[in-house]
Structure formats: structure tokens, C-alpha cells
Design a protein that fits this description.
By secondary structure, the protein is of the alpha+beta class. The protein has nine helices and four strands, in the order E-H-E-H-E-E-H-H-H-H-H-H-H.
Length: 231
């Protein structure tokens, strides 16, 4: 596949764009990585995702696809010659989709709410929700990994990508709030999994530096709080 046949419109800080990059790397695909400008949003983004106007957008030739989970599934279905991302069994595939949706609903929104909350008291319920997610994901990992390194077994799979894409933002949340979330005493399997995930060859050069991400998070925090107070 020639580079110009595959293109990803994303951003270095986006966990959702990271998901697509990981999937493309797993399949060994060459692609053009285009960074979205945002200020203002590019014509390419507005034309290719007119409904949500969000990244990532994946282009297969002249056909755009939106929403990271959908894109990852598409990549897995089209390029069958590479390692599988979704399980072969129909039940296991459905279960992987369930946990992917759960992560986006509970984990991602908790992180956003912590970033926008004004004080520790306001952050408390969202930290509690994140702790609940970690406990549930620890249980799920122990069930489906069968003692192997990843949710997907020996290799990174759909749940690994869905959850692991937020690892850098988890470290940012921990550092900005002085609160350890991924704790070996509470979730030992996830701590080991996170280390394996970050070290996997499909992640090489993709995870943003924590300090750089913190600087971005501080700017984003100001914008989100300003937008919330303007309502």
C-alpha cells in the first residue's frame, strides 16, 4: 500500500488518533500522518467529518472514516494479512466492543471532568469513578488475558488499544493532581500490563512525553474552564 493511499488526520496529543496509529503499526501499514491545525479547524477536517468536526479521520484513498473505534475495526477487517486486533470469536469481539465503549464513557469523561473541575472537592467523584474503572479493568484483564501480557493475549488487541491510548493522559492526571491512580497494591496486573503495552514495538515513538503533555493540558484546562463559565 503506497503511503499516499492511507492518511491519518490527527494530533500528537490525541489518545483517539493514537489508537489508529497503533492499529496501523500492528498491521505494518505505511501512511501519511497529518497534524490538524484547529485554530481554525482545517478545511480537510470540516469537509471529511462535517457531522462531529473531530479527529481522527482516516482516509483510505479518497474515502474518509471517522471515530477511532470504527477506524480500528475497519483496519482490522481490511488488512487481514497482519496480526488480528479483534478476537476471532463473535462473543469475544462483542465483549471487546463493550469494554471499549465503557472506557470511553467512564474513563475518558472522568479525566475531562477532573481537568475542568475547580477544586479537589469537585474532582473527588471523578477520581472515585476512575478508581472503579481501574478495578473493573483489573478484573477483566485477569479474566481475558489468560495469564498473558495483554487483554488480547500474547499480542495487543482491541481492549489494549482502547485503554492503553489513555496511559499518557493518566500519567498527566496523576502528576497534575499529586495522586497515584495506577497502584501496584490495588491493580498489580494493570501495572504490569501498562509497562508491557508502552514497551511494545507497535508503540515505538508514539506515546507523547508526559511533561510536554502537561504543558498542553494546562492550556486546554484554561480553555475548557473558560468555555464552561461562559455558559
Amino acid at each position: 500500500m503506497a503511503r499516499n493511499d492511507l492518511k491519518l488526520l490527527g494530533a500528537w496529543f490525541s489518545p483517539f488518533a493514537l489508537r489508529v496509529q497503533i492499529a496501523l503499526n500492528i498491521k505494518g501499514l505505511d501512511y501519511e500522518n497529518v497534524q490538524e491545525t484547529f485554530n481554525p479547524k482545517s478545511d480537510l477536517l470540516l469537509q471529511s467529518n462535517p457531522v462531529h468536526k473531530k479527529i481522527p479521520v482516516f482516509f483510505h484513498g479518497d474515502k474518509p472514516l471517522c471515530e477511532s473505534a470504527i477506524i480500528v475495526e475497519y483496519i482490522d477487517e481490511v488488512w487481514t494479512n497482519g496480526p488480528s486486533i479483534l478476537p476471532a470469536n463473535a462473543y469475544d469481539r462483542a465483549n471487546a466492543r463493550f469494554w471499549g465503549a465503557y472506557i470511553d464513557d467512564k474513563w475518558f469523561m472522568s479525566m475531562v471532568n477532573i481537568l475542568t473541575a475547580e477544586d479537589d472537592e469537585a474532582k473527588k467523584p471523578y477520581f472515585e469513578q476512575m478508581e472503579e474503572v481501574l478495578v473493573r479493568m483489573e478484573d477483566e484483564f485477569n479474566k481475558c488475558s489468560e495469564g498473558k501480557a495483554f487483554f488480547g493475549g500474547d499480542k495487543i488487541g482491541f481492549i489494549d488499544i482502547a485503554f492503553g491510548s489513555f496511559l499518557s493522559w493518566l500519567y498527566v492526571t496523576e502528576k497534575m493532581n499529586g495522586k497515584k491512580m495506577l497502584d501496584e497494591a490495588k491493580t498489580p496486573a494493570l501495572v504490569k500490563w501498562a509497562s508491557s503495552f508502552a514497551a511494545d514495538p507497535s508503540l515505538k515513538g508514539l506515546l507523547p512525553e508526559t511533561d510536554k503533555l502537561i504543558e498542553f493540558a494546562k492550556v486546554l484546562q484554561q480553555k475548557l474552564r473558560a468555555a464552561a463559565s461562559a455558559k
